[in-house]
Amino acid sequence: MKKQLPTLALVLTAMIWGFAFIGVDSALGSGWKPFEILFSRGLVGAVFLSFFSLKYKWYKNKKTLILGFICGILTFIPYALQTIGQASSGVQNSAIFTSLNIIFIPFIMRVIFRKKLEKKVIIAAIIAFIGTFIITFNESLIANKFNLFIVLQNIASSLKFSDILLILCGLGFAIQIIFCGYCAKCDNPLSITTIQLFTMALISLIFMPLFGQTNIMHSNGWMGVIFVAIFSSAIASVLQIYAQKKVKPTTTSIILCQETIIACIASVLILHDAMNFLEVLGLMLMILAVLIVEIKFSKKQKVIINQYEKIDASV
To answer: Which residues contact 147 (CB under 8 A, 6 or more apart)?
Structure first.
C-alpha cells in the first residue's frame, strides 16, 4: 500500500485541481481579475502552510530558499499565461493547449535530458492527449460529422496570439513539473511549497498595478478564492512535490491531466451540466492512459514482449 501512496497523492491532486475550476469560475464571475486571484491564492496558501512549515526553519536555508523561489517563478508563469490566454481564447482552447504538457514532458526528457522512456508511457501520453482533445472539441466533432481534418483546419485558421500564450503555458507546466521532480528529491515539500506560493504572490503583486488589477477587497467570490488558495495551491502543491519523490515527471503529467475528468464530473454534480457520448469516451480514454502507465509487467511478460519486438524487427 505504501508504494501506491505517491500515485494516490497525484490522483488526489488531480481531484482538487478539477474542483478548483469551479472555485476560479466563481471568483471570476464575482468580479475578480486574474492577477488578483493569483496574488490572493499565493498569499493565503503560503500563510496557511507557514503554520506547518516554519518548524523546518526554511527561512535560514539558502538552498531551500533558492529552490522554492525558482519553483515559484516556474509556477507563476504558466498560471499567468493560462489566465491571460483563456480570457481571449476561451475554456476549450485553454484546456487543449495547456494539456500539451503531456506531450512536451516526454520530448524534453528524451531530447534535453537524454532519458530513455518506456513505450507504455509514450502510448499513455498519446492516449491521454487524444482523450483531452475529444472532451474539449466534442461539439465541433459532432457538428462536422467527425471530420477530423475540418476540425483541425478550423483550429489552425482561428489560431490567435492568445492561443500561442496557451501553448507556451503548456510548455511552462511541463518545465514546472520536471523541476518540481528535482525539488522533491532535494528538500522538504512543505518548505518548498511555502516559498513557492510566497514567490507567486510577490510576482502577482508586481504585475497587478501594471494591468490595473489592484482591488482584492471584493465583497463576493471569497469562498472560491479561499478554496483555490488552501486546497489547490497549498495542499495539492505539497502533494504533488511529495509524490514526485517517487513518480517520474512523464507519469506525473499523465495522472495530473485527470483533472479534466474531475472538472467534468464537478460540472455535472455542481453546475448540473450534461455530458454527451464523446465526453464519456474521452474520459474513458484518459482513465485508460493512467491504467496503462500504472501496469507493472512481470519479467516473463517483458521477455515475451522483447521477443515479439525482435520478430517484428526481423520482418
So the answer is: none
